[in-house]
């Protein structure tokens, strides 16, 4: 890693996973449910050779600040679409509580 404090692509995706899990936990006890659908993440990445990395290449996510300051570097636009699944059931993830709640007041 260099002085720009780049974020590995895997770490960026892991952060999204943690945030979805946190949102699901916060949604417990709420009457309104949200089903998590496909999540699309768009990144500008810089690919670098790394002898320590499996396959020898690392993808670093660049912040907007870093993008403006990068010179003589090839960057790439990457779009990743993830469809969250519950590991225990294989079904969709819900950010809510277990029952359907009430429609009173709607």
Largest sheet: 4 strands, antiparallel
Please bin the fraction of helical residues: 10-25%
- Number of strand elements: 6
Provide the gyration radius in Å.
19 Å
State the end-to-end distance. 52 Å
Number of helical segments? 2
Shape: elongated
Give me the strand/helix succession: EHEEEHEE
Output mean pLDDT: 77
Class inferred from helices and paired strands: alpha+beta
| Poorly predicted sequence stretches spanning 5 or more consecutive residues | 99-103
The spatial strand order of the largest sheet comes to 1-4-3-5
- Please report which band the strand proportion falls in: under 5%, 5-15%, 15-25%, 25-35%, 35-45% or over 45%: 25-35%
Structure description:
The protein has a domain at 7-28 and 35-81. It has helices at residues 9-26, 64-69; strands at residues 7-8, 34-35, 39-49, 57-61, 75-82, 94-95. It is an alpha+beta fold and 106 residues long. It is elongated. The strands form two sheets. It has a four-stranded antiparallel beta sheet with strand order 1-4-3-5. The termini are far apart. A hairpin with a 7-residue loop joins strand 3 and strand 4. Helices cover 23% and strands 28% of the residues.
